[in-house]
Amino acid sequence: MTQAVTAAPSRTAAAVRLAGVSKAFGTGSSSLLALDQVSLDVAPGEFVCLLGASGCGKSTLLNLVAGLDQVSAGSIDSSGARVALMFQEPALFPWLTVTGNLELALKMRGVPRQDRRARAAELLESVHLGGFARKRPHQLSGGMRQRVALARALALTEDDGASEQGTVLLMDEPFGALDAMTRDLLHDEIERIWRARGLTVLFVTHNVREAVRLGDRVVLLSSRPGRVVQEFPVPIDRPRRIDDADVSTLAATITQRLREEVGRHGA
Amino acid sequence: MARETAQSTDEAAESNVEDTVVDSVESSGSTAGEPADTAGDTVKDAKVSQDTEADGLSRQLAGLDALELGGGTRGRSLLLVWSAIWPILTAALIGIAAWQLVVWSGWKETYVLPGPADTLPVFWDQMTNSRFWDAVALTMRRALVGFAVAVAIGVLIGALVSQFRVLRRAFGSLITGLQTMPSIAWFPLAILLFQLSESAILFVVVLGAAPSIANGLIAGVDYTPPILLRAGKVMGLRGLNQYRHLIMPASLPSFVAGLKQGWAFAWRSLMAGELLVIIGNTTSLGVLLAQARELNATAEMISYMIVILIIGIVIDQVFGAVDRAIRVRWGVDQD
Question: How far apart are CA B133 and CA B143, in angstroms?
């Protein structure tokens, strides 16, 4: 995004490439370094979980990739992929119906007016909310709203099948505010949609088990400033369950490493 | 966009969904983990294609949705109307009773302060008098014209001030200051500038109402939730699109509150104006009030005051209804 692609992207090109990304807020002595020299390659179709304690700059990182903010140093290259960002809050527009929210996103993606209603209906079907197009956001439960938000993010990555660049979905603790049962089902849901659509996902969480449950790879970030501490591949077959023994074992290892990292700030 | 389609089909669809929800909640009983069959089937029916692997997930999600939504409430609009009206009626009766008690106490002679029983026939007499209705028409015309001009000016100023930080610093507190200034204090200046004319009244009405309207708009823009602004940015809403699809609808509730307050100020300013600025042989509610005082016709005066009060209440109720409609749509109503 910030850098032009110099050569034609090869088959193994990253969907998102962060090279030495730093981000400081403020200037002079009061400036705060949020991210320090973060480098990360996310392969097309990969599901990467970013894990860290408070203050690790996870959300800052997603904002940078989404283009909502500018890097202080380094570069981010998403090779012209469609990028959509989803938050912990559904952030749906309360004055629009569910379908209205999706249609606005489609409009902003340049989908012609006559196609929007049908495309919105397809998207709602894909998150199992086909019967709720005419509802307003406040009439849905938290989990349902978050699925509408997911459908809206998917609407923003609609690719018309013309581009090979693929689509990148950035998720900022999307299930953090939901109860365990709902979260569990939504893990299945996002996994299914990720596979069906061949999405590239960059998923931020502070929940270690969730990261292991979902990710092909878990990237552990340090706090203040955020640096990549360690990367953990997740060699566990899918479908996984959050209470699988393999998931728990790897989660325990990563938790230990995370605790060490957090402990450094107490000293 | 979405709500332009036929309302009846919408409602049918909605009640269908709600029926399903209620059914499934009842039939699923205590087994929270097991999705209810009815809800699962309905969602499945609606599907065109559904791979079998995801079928279980689909059923579980539908079941959870059904459990979380609970039943809807509807079909009590008559009750709502009654629940809005009876407190007003009761208050009116208490007011009339208090008035009657004061009269009975013998504090003033009845030709100075007539009781409700003496005033009601006079009130009715006025209701059937064409001169009275001409007066109401003139007053309402002034009120509406003044309010319309105030809305135009208030929106313009509000939009500019909310948009530019420099203007905010320069005029933000001035607008709030103007809002607190009693409008009657403007009349000496208005009469000097415009003599005893319609313009003088309009000038003060606009000055009374516009600051509230501008402030309502400014507050609405200021309190657009930051998370919605971020979501809008992700969608690519910028510039005019951001205004049209995000900031304007988001500031609507606050804007309506500003309109309501602006109307109250406009109405007060107008009444003050009609008492002070009496133009030639025009007949307005203010003129009728002033004449009734000169003639010591207290019953007529009280009749006009009741009319002024009723008009104020009715229009306030209109704004209240708009405000409630927005709250219900947004899901922020208190009921």
Answer: 15
Q: pTM here?
A: 0.75
Distance (Å, whole) CA B335 – CA B333: 6
Q: Do B231 and A135 touch (CB under 8 A)?
A: no
Dihedral-angle region of residue B239 (phi above 0 means left; psi in -120 to 50 means alpha; beta otherwise): left
* CA-closest candidate to residue A261, choices A236, A228, A232: A228
Which residues neighbour B68 within 8 Å (Cβ) at sequence distance 6 or greater? A141, A142, A143, A144
Residues 40-59 of B with CB under 8 A from A: 42-43, 46-48, 53-54, 57-58
Q: Are A185 and B47 inside 8 Å of each other by CB?
A: no
Chain A neighbors of B1, CB-CB under 8 A: 96, 100, 103-104
Report helix, strand or coil for A23: strand
Report pLDDT for B54.
Answer: 61
- Burial pattern B167-186, b for ≥16 Cβ within 10 A else e, equals ebeebbeebeebbeeebbeb
Instruction: Mark yes or no for CB contact A136/B231 under 8 Å.
Output: no
Helix (H, G, I), strand (E, B) or coil at A38: strand
Percent of chain A with pLDDT over 90: 30
- Distance (Å, whole) CA A204 – CA A143: 18
Residue with tokens 């003050």, as numbered in its chain: B272
Judged by CB atoms closer than 8 Å, whether chains meet at A140 and B69 is answered as: yes
Give the C-alpha distances (Å, rounded to integers) separating B321 from B81, B254, B314, B317, B325: 11, 14, 11, 6, 6
Quick check: B169 pLDDT over 60?
A: yes
Q: What are phi and psi of B178, to 5 degrees?
A: -60, -35
Q: Which residues of A touch B331 (CB under 8 A)?
A: 94, 136-139
Going by DSSP bridges, is the β-strand pair A32-42/A16-25 parallel, antiparallel, or unpaired?
A: antiparallel
Encoding tokens for residue A30? 């009061």
Distance, in Å, from the CA atom of B244 to the CA atom of B268, rounded to the nearest integer, reads 33
3-state SS string over A115-142?
Answer: HHHHHHHHHHHHCCCHHHCCCCHHHCCH
pLDDT at A31: 80
Residues B34-53: tens digit of each pLDDT: 444 444 444 444 443 445 55
Strands (E), B171-280: none
